[in-house]
Amino acid sequence: MFRAIADVLRQVGAAIATVVTLPFRALARLFGGASATT
């Protein structure tokens, strides 16, 4: 039972991590492209 709860929490944490890091990755790619073109 505890193992199932731990798996669910791990999946939720991974999903939250991806959602939180996505905009920062987009910004980094944006600024990276801008700095590369200039």
From TrEMBL:
InterPro entries: LPFR_strepto (IPR049849)
Top-rank taxon: Bacteria
Name this protein carries in UniProt: LPFR motif small protein
Species of provenance: Streptomyces carpinensis
Taxon lineage: Bacteria, Bacillati, Actinomycetota, Actinomycetes, Kitasatosporales
